[in-house]
Amino acid sequence: MKTNNNCNLSIRILVWLVTLVMMAGLTAQTNILSNNVDGNLLKLAKELETNVLNRSTINGFNSYVIKENMVLCHITKRNDVSGGTFEEEVRRIPGIQLAQPTFQYGFQNAYIPYNSLINLQSNTSIGSINPIFRPETNAHTQGDAALKTNKIRSDYGFTGKGVRIGVISDGVGPLLHPANGDLGPAADDVPQIVSDITLLDEPGAQLFIQNNDDIGNRAEGIAMIEIIRDIAPDADIVFANAFDITGNYLFQAIDALKNAGCQIIVDDVGQFAIPFFQSNVDEHIPIKNTIDEFTNSGGIYLSAVGNFRDKVIQQVYNPGIENKHLFNSGTNDNQVEIKIPAGKRLIVRLQWSNAWNDVYDDFDLKLLDEAGITIAADVDVDNNGGIPYAGINFTNELMQEKSVFLEIACKNVTIVPIVLKLFILGEGKDWAAEDDKHLFEINGTVICQQMYENVITIGTSKYNNLNTITDYSSTGPVRTYSPVFNATLNKNILELTQILFKPDFTSVDGVEVSGFNGFPVNFIGTSAAAPHFAALLALLKEARPNLSRGEILSLLKQHTEKFGPYIYDKEDGKSIETGYGRVNVLSLFQNLPPQNQSYGSCFDVVYADYNYNCGQQKIDQTVGTQFRYKGRACSAPPTSVVNNNNPTGSGSGGNNGGNGPGGPGGGGGPGISTSVNVPPIISKNEDCKECLDALFIKLTNAIQVNNQNGGN
Question: Which contiguous run of DSSP H or E holds residue 621?
């Protein structure tokens, strides 16, 4: 067949034009997709913009997180662009409100106005924008199965009923949906909110928010509550914000929860402006007094040990030129180089071992740029009865990494060794220049109220890697100093008087939560470990409500698993990484003492009127002193005093002894009135026995005993 060249040319031109049109359409589509706004999200935004007065008619409306004219979105970064460019372009979206800054992880959750989503121009750094949906099913913490608390609910039926837990964190987020007043998270994850504390006694009412006028914009408190709810679903929960607009501080939150009838309080916050060296300071430290009042009345106070491992430098002051501290001994290195990522904030806190409110050394803290110019400093005069504290907050406002240099200098030369403790927060050690990374410590990083003896601190390991603590969980020991008068200085100087092993116990983190209000679905940190432990205590308090704080802690101590390559002290049974270890929950509940039985504990407080309950018999002795042994309070007589059937005794009972015979071979232990069967928890607890023996040595003059060998 003969072809028409003109026709072929026309066809070729037509095909070419069609191809151009298709390519143009594809290019346009690519430009649209470069924003990668989810199609359903874009459709939702258009419907919301045109149906402002009748939102409930929109299909699936209640599945989205919406407030006013905005939708909560998940924004991801394209892999081929820098984090700084991504953050800069995200922040330029009109009307955007960041839910929680997470740019360093390559994504950001934020509320975006409907019209901004509709009119969003092509963006070179954003990979995708998707809606964040409300949880349709509750996220259940994997820590429940890892710790085996799920078996306590299924096998014993304990659910935390009748126990009230106080939670202190930095916010619970917008719990109430502004459109319809419904709870933000799934109902199974967060208990129903009640408006009055008295309503907690009603069925189904389980969460009361203290300071309800300022519930905060963050949702870490919600994540903690979800974990407690999963393990102890029937426990009452009272939330108090640690940082509210009324000026309440942490100690006021504790006081509010105590007054609300909480038996257990758990926090995941720290207060830096309290002594790092003197945990025994009472004056002007209301948080310690408040905690002591709560625990002395029987309450149990728990705190996340902190995520400060590798974020602290602690050294003895080593003066160099101009009295600047030499970080590296034998060199002129008087600076620490920190590389701050674009847009990030550096937080630096310094304390030194002078007496609180009685400072005699004056240290300055400075931050310099690469040209040696001071860009931030704390150079206040401290050596006039002030506090040994200096702090700097600095934000890198550049769109690129910035190197800064920390210096510590003393204005007056001290004549006694001074310990410096420098916290560099943000991303911690990861920001340090390579040459300075070795300065950061992994031990001795427990600070704030977590160092107090009456605060039970909780470290963490991953729920799926139980035998290794995480590389951020703070570790001990805690060194406590006490002021001693120095005649040369005419001042009180600090001397080391006590070393405590912290944390006290280990729990788990890395677990799943609902991710409400942009909070990460994977809850990482000791903030996740602490509520697991609080919920376990709620189950135990329900099972044995008559047990005292000290008795509960003694039980926990006995039923722990030592794990990992950590060294456990032979005398105290603790390590500086894990404390007593991880509680063996099944062993604990399988070996609970009988109901309504009380016994003494080394953790209980000793009062002037010495009361000891052993089984059904009560022994009262009045003594005129209190005694602390190895950093613990003792409150029960040793087994050799109470139980003359003690196999470690010898011979028959001494004069004025009990009715029971001593062990074979020599003098019996001193009796008080009658023979009593001591619960196994005391006779098996050598640490407790040592503690109690020491107590009775101390109280010999107050308690009349006769330890004659071979007495009648």
Answer: strand 617-622
The answer to whether the beta carbons of residues 170 and 525 sit under 8 Å apart is no
Count CB neighbours of 443 within 10 A.
Answer: 14
Q: How confident is the model at residue 508 (pLDDT cuts 50, 70, 90)?
A: very high
Residue among 53, 100, 4, 20 nearest 523 (CA): 100
**For residue 175, what pLDDT band results from cuts at 50, 70 and 90?**
low
Asked if the peptide bond before residue 503 counts as cis, ω within 30 degrees of 0, the response is yes
Q: Indicate the pTM of the whole model.
A: 0.69
**Length in residues, the chain:** 712
In degrees, rounded to 5, the angle at the alpha carbon of residue 390 between the alpha carbons of residues 388 and 395 is 165
Select from 348, 359, 366 the least CA-distant residue to 383: 359
Instruction: Report the SS3 class of residue 495.
Output: strand
The dihedral formed by the CA atoms of 316, 318, 319 and 320, expressed in degrees to the nearest 10: -150
Q: Provide the token pair at 681.
A: 């928890």
- Is residue 703 scored above 90 in pLDDT? no
Q: What is the pLDDT of residues 549-583, one digit of tens each?
A: 988 999 999 999 999 999 998 877 899 999 999 99
Partner residues linked to 419 by β-bridges: 316
427 φ, ψ (degrees, to nearest 5):
-105, 10
Mean pLDDT of 94-99: 84
Summarised one tens digit per residue, pLDDT across range 644-685 is 223 333 322 233 222 222 222 222 222 222 222 323 222 223
What's the CA angle centered on 131, arms 185 and 462, to 5 degrees? 55
At which residue do the structure tokens 């600095």 appear? 394
Place of tokens 């729920």: 463
What integer pLDDT is reported at residue 629 of this predicted model? 34
Structure-token pair, residue 531: 């509520």
Q: Mapping DSSP to helix (H, G, I), strand (E, B) and coil, where does residue 689 land? A: helix
SS3 499: strand
Query: pLDDT value at position 177?
Result: 43
> Which tokens belong to 673?
């009135």
- For residue 73, the cross-strand partners are 110, 131
Cα-based distances in Å from 157 to 104, 236, 308? 44, 17, 38
